[in-house]
Amino acid sequence: MLFNSFDFLLFFAVVFCVQYVLPFRPRNIFLLIASYFFYGCWDWRFLLLIFLSTVIDYFCSLAMDRHDGPLRKRWLVVSCISNLGILGFFKYFNFFVSSADQLLTSLGLSAPQWHLNVVLPVGVSFYTFQALSYTIDVYRRKLKPLRNFLDFALYVTLFPQLVAGPIERGAHLAQQVTRKTPISWADIYDGSWLILKGLFKKAVIADNLAPIVDAVFTNSTADGLDVLLGIYAFAFQIYGDFSGYSDIARGTARWMGYDLMLNFRLPYFAIDPSDFWSRWHISLSSWLRDYLYIPLGGNRGSAFSTYRNLMLTMLLGGLWHGAAWTFILWGAFHGAILVAFRLLREHDLIAASVPKLSPAWLGRVLLMFHLTCVSWLLFRANSFEQLSRLTGALCSPWYGSEMTAHYLWKLLLLCVPLLCVHLAEELAGDLNLVRRLSLLPRALVYATTIIAILTIGSFGGREFIYFQF
Predict the structure, then answer these.
(1) Is 321 among the catalytic positions?
(2) Which long-range contacts (CB under 8 A, 24 or more apart) does 173-178 make?
(3) Nearest by Cα to 241 from 272, 298, 288, 199
């Protein structure tokens, strides 16, 4: 059930109307049933899996709250093993078995045939990390556990953020599900604008750029210039697709009185890698910081240990995205540029901040954008063979093709207006700049957005990219 489908529109209309009139406790029960129905529309076979994960973490959190010392730590270990075990088996079993097979074969040894037909449950990377952060916070005594099982189950499965985030924290969302917040007109207004923005990014930007990306990355004889345009197209496709999903998720949640965390903050105006990761997939990058990088030691030790911790964090962040060596390489690349820019700052070769619109700012924004585009080539390539072919095309003479002009004009038409709006938001320091407008200009913005969605939006049923993670 895609956010940009009539099925979801009908589903959400029914859910909103029913939950609006229900008192608190029946409302939570209804939303829990609706969330399980929503998840079951993807694959009902995995409803038991998410229920099992919820039950284990619920009882582990209560047990940790009652005990201290070694017994408390054991319950945390149970929660970690169950969550990471679910994630590891369904997402990585065949990957590690295949990698081991290839290694044994290269050594001239016979490889056991342990491959299983494992289907990846949608959203498993998201809800396991969300549940895991909750139990870790309970263990650290940063959070009191929810006593009511239905409240905790709703925290894990609330449908707007269930299959692709944001990866919520207990301190933020778990406290919201324990009370019914009155839905205000501001919630409806802000939620509606978030939904419109999300649909625009997904249907107008991402899904119209997708054919360019698919054509370039699957073309075995693609010209270098076309490959470059294809990488630019993918940079805006994945941004529009994923940030669009997050906007719609936050908007639908606002309609029901829930405030989900911000997940994107104009990432292509970042001036260095750490700035980029404070703007891109914020719920994941902050999760990796709080539950991996800092526990590893963060920047508290020597310079070498800091660089090691950065690399390990980004390698595991790459592996989180997918069971493929290209994702690990993507994580390694981001780890390497994080280390490189940190070295440059420590030796006073670059400033931590620069005035916006200054030549230095423009240069660093362009540099960081193109470094990010290099990483998107690693991310989008489905094999090292494809990566090698595309890299070879980029390093060969650029002659263009009969499709080059079409790709270029489509990119300019779709991306330049978006960049202009985002630049205004960046300079104003306000992601909701449209609210500052007077009534008539604001109405014109809304009308233009709706018309663009209806006239040039693509509604071909293309799934959101991050559903595969």
Answers:
(1) yes
(2) 173/258, 173/260, 174/134, 174/143, 174/146, 176/257, 176/258, 176/259, 177/28, 177/146, 177/151, 177/258, 178/146, 178/148, 178/151
(3) 199
User: Of the listed 115, 172, 281, 321, which one is catalytic?
Assistant: 321
Q: Which of 336, 338, 331, 329 is nearest to 387 (CA)?
A: 329
- State the sign of the Cα–Cα–Cα–Cα dihedral 279, 283, 285, 289: positive
Q: Token pair 């369904």 is at which residue?
A: 90
pLDDT at 117 over 80: no
Q: CA quadruple 383, 375, 243, 422: dihedral positive or negative? A: negative
Q: What does the pLDDT look like over 308-349, one tens digit per residue?
A: 999 999 999 999 998 899 999 999 999 999 999 999 999 889
Query: Which H helix or E strand runs over 137?
Result: helix 124-139
Contact 44, 37 (CB under 8 A): no
pLDDT in tens, 371-399: 999 999 999 999 999 999 999 999 988 88
d(CA 192, CA 252): 8
Two tokens, residue 207: 């899904």
Burial class (CB in 10 A: 0-12, 13-18, 19+), 294: middle
Task: Report whether 282 contacts 294 (CB < 8 A).
Answer: no
Quick one: how far is CA 21 from the chain centroid?
33
Rounded to an integer, the average pLDDT of 70-74 is: 93
Nearest to 330 by CA among 340, 320, 342, 339: 320
CB 197 within 8 A of CB 228: no
**In the chain, what's the furthest Cα-to-Cα distance?**
73
What ranges make up the beta strands (E) of 139-271?
none
In eight-state DSSP terms, residue 466 is G
> Would you say the C-alpha torsion 333, 335, 339, 341 has a positive or negative sign?
positive
Give long-range contacts, CB 8 A cutoff, 24+ apart: 17-24: 19/256, 20/183, 23/180, 24/179, 24/180
Would you tell me how many other CB atoms lie within 10 Å of the CB of residue 33? 12
Residue 107: CB atoms within 10 A of its CB come to 8
Beta strands (DSSP E) in 199-259 are: none
Q: How far apart are CA 379 and CA 402, in angstroms?
A: 27
Read out DSSP for 83-127? HHHHHHHHHHHHHHHHHHHHHHHHTT---------PPPPTTHHHH
pLDDT on residue 119? 82
Cα gap 233→231, rounded to integer Å: 5
